[in-house]
Amino acid sequence: MELILREFNFDSIQIKVLDSLIAVDTGYLFTPTVFARNILQAAGLIKYCECVVIDPALKSAVVTPENKKCFLKELSHLKIYPNPANDYIVADYKIDPSSSNIDLYIIGMDGKIFNIVKLFKTQDQKIISIKTFDNGSYIVAIKADEKVVQSCKLIIIR
């Protein structure tokens, strides 16, 4: 069997698409997730090792300190959809379970706070009306214990 080595040249959009495929699958078992992870790993853009311990007698490679480390995704996330939005958004979030005093902020690009929504759970989805907001770009951020833990950009187009 002939091994073909190619140089990978990805632009930022392609890398973001591959990374988003990985982020969608929390169990890392979805076939496109595995392909996306393998592509980014082959291109040298991420480091990954299986977090499953395999009996050394079954391995043909020498175990080194570098491949003992596992790089795991963050346990927290904030996803806003639809984006761009029109009348409402759905904020899908997950943060550290030990967090308290959790608020979701919608902030204009000028720094003005347009809306604050109190969140009572550390993982949930919240539907938020944005009918009164003007067209433009906003930042959606989650603050827990007086610290911003996640944020993302929101675009409103009507």
Outline:
The protein is α+β, with helices and mostly antiparallel strands and 158 residues long. Helices cover 16% and strands 33% of the residues.
Characteristic key phrases:
2 helices; single chain; about 160 residues; three-stranded antiparallel β-sheet; globular; alpha+beta; about 35% strand
Radius of gyration: 20 Å
Counting DSSP E segments of at least 2 residues, the number of strands comes to 7
Strand order of the largest sheet: 4-3-6-7
Q: Helical element count?
A: 2
Cα(first) to Cα(last) distance is 55 Å
Poorly predicted tracts of residues: 1-5, 67-74
**Secondary-structure-derived class:** alpha+beta
Topology order in helix (H) and strand (E) letters: HHEEEEEEE
Q: What percent of residues are in strands?
A: 25-35%
Question: Can you summarize the main beta sheet?
Answer: 4 strands, antiparallel
Q: Give the mean pLDDT.
A: 78
Helicity, in percent? 10-25%
What coarse outline follows from CA principal-axis ratios?
A: globular
